[in-house]
Amino acid sequence: MNADIANIIGNGLVTGCIYALIGVGFVVVFRATGVVSFAQGAFMVLGALIFATVTRNGQDLSVGLIAVVLVMFLIGGLIYRLVFARLAGSEVFVTSIATVGLGIVLQVVALLVWGPEVIVVPAPFDFRSQVHVVGALSFSALDLFVMGLTVVVFALIVVGLQRTPTGLRMRAVANNPRLAAYGGVNVVRTSTLAWGIGAATAGLAGVVFLLGSQPDPVSVFSLGLAAFPAILLGGLDSIPGSLVGGILIGLLQASVGVYIGGAWQDVVSYCVLLGLLLIRPQGILGSVGVARL
Amino acid sequence: MLDSQATTSRADGGGDASEPRGWRMVPSGPGLGTLVFVAIAMATVLAGGPYALYTGTLICIYAIVTVSQEWILGRAGLVSLGSAAIMAIGAYTTARLSETSWGLFPVPLLVSFVFGGIVGLLIGVPGLRFKGLYLMLTTLALQFIVMFAGQKYQGVEHEAGFLVTPPTWGSLPLNTPKALFIITAVVLGLVLFALSGIYRGVPGRVWNAMRQDEAAASVLGAHLVRWKLAAFIGSSAITAVGGSLYAYQAGQVSYNSFSLELSLTLLVMVFIGGLGTLAGPVIGAAVIVLLPILLDDLADAFAGLPDVANWLFINQATLANGLYGLLLLLVLLFERDGIFGLGRRLGRGALGMGRRLTTTRGEN
Fold first, then answer.
1. For residue range A140-180, what is the model confidence (pLDDT) as tens digits?
2. Are A131 and A138 in contact (CB under 8 A)?
């Protein structure tokens, strides 16, 4: 295996995992409430900043991650109750524009509270140390951490949805909110939970991006939009799809970065998005009904 | 239970029962009050200094774009996140034509109009096969692709952007602040005139029927995709004209003036002003252009408290941004008809007989 391919696999998997974490939150929110969220980027910014604040105060990685998940969960749930529960039943364009407005407000709050500077965190562990895998392929400790975190998050969400009573209720609401309500499911509570999960996974994506590249808040926000091609590729309403789409777009972008140039990465994935809309708008694993939404 | 029922209507994907109040079937021409208001506004700007003229021109340019965006948002129920990209196409066209023999004003405006329409067609065909969500994603892709293509097109040689040769008629320069303001105001007037005619006629009724119930409109013989495409092509053509005028005012065209933020700001303008009317988006454009200036004044007002004034000054752009977002959320949550709808309602409440003064629309 030559160095280029090793490079593509390494970078592609890590970027793909970030897209997958953004995407899975998007999908959970979309399935439960039908909202196309453009606010995932803003949740990432908040997650990254909360993590930075906690770890700068001397707490270690696990405390930082738990704080991000809890706080983002509360923020997501609160936002659903304050804004999107009131907009339920509006046209898709109204709710999605509301997420645009929400994204702007959250980003501005973050900029006013924390400032626009590059977010710096102390290294929580020696994440540059390389772990050799096979041939030229080796992962840094950070890469392994990112992939492990993604696997854990997906496992929790999938098991939670398939094996717990709450997961059953969430699937019922996703399938048919009215019928679920007649069956005694508290739709508002379930949707609040979905928004909480959506915000929490986006927050984790923000943390992961922060650890890898020390970005400023605005570029974290932009990454939330860059995940759309991946989300659509996987299918807007498919949880495994968000992982598959994320990894595929991650690998594609990494190959573009190696063979064509880093500047072309985003534009190529948006071209994929355009092509996909022509050929297979429901994505790889999405349901056909969603395409007609 | 109520919530669950409301949530279901999106799953059905069909016509929506939550029809905002105040959307009228058929608009009539502008009332006397509107004409007086426009005359006063024009006179104020023309009597003002270069800064007032600059601001007035900017409002007119944005209003041209927001009115055309309202065409697809308020009539066809579609959202475009790529209005800035289409403006960029008009602006690049203008910059490149202005230095050639095709640069005679208003030829670049007309060419931009055509190019905008063509891009609308190219983007609309994949984007409109499905409901609104997919047009959003297509236009988001367009936004990034145009930004990237613009950057590549400018290359290293024109890194700061293409210069626009000032428009002239013979020896008469058209790029003085006053001339530019008059030109943009006239173009805005023409756009409003044309659109009010279109909305009053058969197309307006078809879009209105589509927005209320797509299935019913389609049963009555409206070809949904064709009508949506028509609205999108028309609105893209006008948006490109807005971009062309933007190029003339700025004097220089660079890709980074047409970012996604601009697209979002334009959307915010439309929503804040109010959907379903022609006056709404114009008011929205004016409010959003004037808001940073008001914040500026606010910073001056706190001159006695240097800390507060300084904080306001440093965070001015961020604060203005946050206010747009907040206004957008408030409008969506509490007053779906925007500032214009709110004003109209307040006006009606305050003086029932003064309705003709506060509305551009008659009842039918």
1. 888 899 999 999 999 999 999 989 999 889 888 888 888 88
2. yes
Backbone angles phi and psi of A131, in degrees to 5: -115, 120
Domain ranges of chain A: 17-120+139-227
Q: CB A104 to CB B324 under 8 A?
A: yes
Q: For residue A166, count other CB atoms closer than 10 A to its CB.
A: 13
CA dist B194 to B71, B150, B189, B191, B270, Å?
Answer: 12, 31, 9, 5, 19
C-alpha to C-alpha distance for A118 and A112, rounded to whole angstroms = 14
Are residues B138 and A274, on separate chains, in Cβ contact within 8 Å? yes
C-alpha B201/C-alpha B195 separation (Å) is: 10
Strand partners, B173: B168
Residues β-bridged to residue A132: A138
* Number of helical (H) and strand (E) elements in chain A, helices listed first: 13, 2
User: B197 touching A, CB under 8 A?
Assistant: no
User: Pairing between strand A130-134 and A137-140?
Assistant: antiparallel
pLDDT computed for residue A203 by the predictor? 96
Number of H helices, E strands in chain B: 16, 4
Q: How far apart are CA B185 and CA B43, in angstroms?
A: 12
Q: Which residue has the tokens 């993590």?
A: A51
What DSSP state is assigned to residue A261? -
**So where are chain B's domains?**
28-210+219-257
What does the mean pLDDT of chain A come to? 89
E strands, chain A, where? 130-134, 137-140
Q: Is the ipTM of this complex over 0.95?
A: no
Cβ-based contacts of B131 with chain A (< 8 Å): 92, 292-293
